[in-house]
C-alpha cells in the first residue's frame, strides 16, 4: 500500500461529502491525475475544482500538483518489501476459523500500522516536537482509552530520565493539572480522533493557557490537526470496533519509542546519569 492511498483512507471518514467523492475517484482512477487537468477531473468526479484543492490539502499536500508529485515519486520507489507478509482480512472476533488466521491478521494489522505511520514520518515536525519537549518546564500527557496506553508508556520513559512529566488516567485529575499549564509547558495529546470530548476539553484549556500543544493523531481536518502547534500523524488499519481490537496503539507506540529515543539522544549529556542510575537499581534487584 502506498503512502498517498494510506493518507486518503486514514482521513476518509472526516472528509466532507464532496471531498469523499474526490477521494473515491482518486483511489479508483489515480492514473487520471496525470492525464487530465483539474477542470476535467472535477467534471469526471462530479465535483468542483475547489473540492479537489481542498481534498489535496486535507490529506496533507499543498495542492493537486503536490499530490501528483507524491504519486509520481511513489511510482518510482519500490515498497514491495514492506508490503510482504500476511494479508489483512477484516473480521470480528467470532468470524475466525483457526488460531493461525487470528495470528496472521493481528500480525498483519500490527506491522502495517507501524509501516504506514513510518511512511508519514515528517523529520522537520518531529525535530520541532523534540526541541519543545527537551526545553519544556513541564510535560503534560493526555490520552483516553486505548490512547492512554501510549501516553502512560511515554510518561514512564520520561520519568526515567528525570523529566518533569505528568500523566493521569483519571479525567478529573487531568482537568486539574491542565488548568495549571502555562507558557513554557508542553501538553501532548494522544487521540485516534477529535471526537473524544474529554481529550478536547483538556486540549481547549491547554490552548488557552499558552502552553505548546502537540497531538499524536490520525490524518484529517479536525480541531486537533488544525489547531495544535505540532502534529505527528499515526495511522493504522482498523479491525471491527465491536471487538475492541485496534492496531492504532502500535502506531502510537512506534512514535513514542522514536520520540523518547530522539529526546534522550538530544539531551544525553544531561540525562545519562539518570539512565545509568535506573539501570543499576533494576540490575541490582534480587532475582527470584
Automatic annotation (TrEMBL):
<dbReference type="InterPro" id="IPR035472">
    <property type="entry name" value="RpiR-like_SIS"/>
</dbReference>
<dbReference type="InterPro" id="IPR046348">
    <property type="entry name" value="SIS_dom_sf"/>
</dbReference>
<keyword id="KW-0238">DNA-binding</keyword>
<dbReference type="Pfam" id="PF01418">
    <property type="entry name" value="HTH_6"/>
</dbReference>
<dbReference type="GO" id="GO:1901135">
    <property type="term" value="P:carbohydrate derivative metabolic process"/>
</dbReference>
<dbReference type="GO" id="GO:0003700">
    <property type="term" value="F:DNA-binding transcription factor activity"/>
</dbReference>
<dbReference type="Pfam" id="PF01380">
    <property type="entry name" value="SIS"/>
</dbReference>
<dbReference type="InterPro" id="IPR036388">
    <property type="entry name" value="WH-like_DNA-bd_sf"/>
</dbReference>
<keyword id="KW-0805">Transcription regulation</keyword>
<dbReference type="GO" id="GO:0003677">
    <property type="term" value="F:DNA binding"/>
</dbReference>
<dbReference type="InterPro" id="IPR047640">
    <property type="entry name" value="RpiR-like"/>
</dbReference>
<keyword id="KW-0804">Transcription</keyword>
<dbReference type="InterPro" id="IPR009057">
    <property type="entry name" value="Homeodomain-like_sf"/>
</dbReference>
<protein>
    <submittedName>
        <fullName>Transcriptional regulator, RpiR family</fullName>
    </submittedName>
</protein>
<dbReference type="InterPro" id="IPR001347">
    <property type="entry name" value="SIS_dom"/>
</dbReference>
<feature type="domain" description="HTH rpiR-type">
    <location>
        <begin position="2"/>
        <end position="78"/>
    </location>
</feature>
<feature type="domain" description="SIS">
    <location>
        <begin position="129"/>
        <end position="269"/>
    </location>
</feature>
<dbReference type="GO" id="GO:0097367">
    <property type="term" value="F:carbohydrate derivative binding"/>
</dbReference>
<dbReference type="InterPro" id="IPR000281">
    <property type="entry name" value="HTH_RpiR"/>
</dbReference>
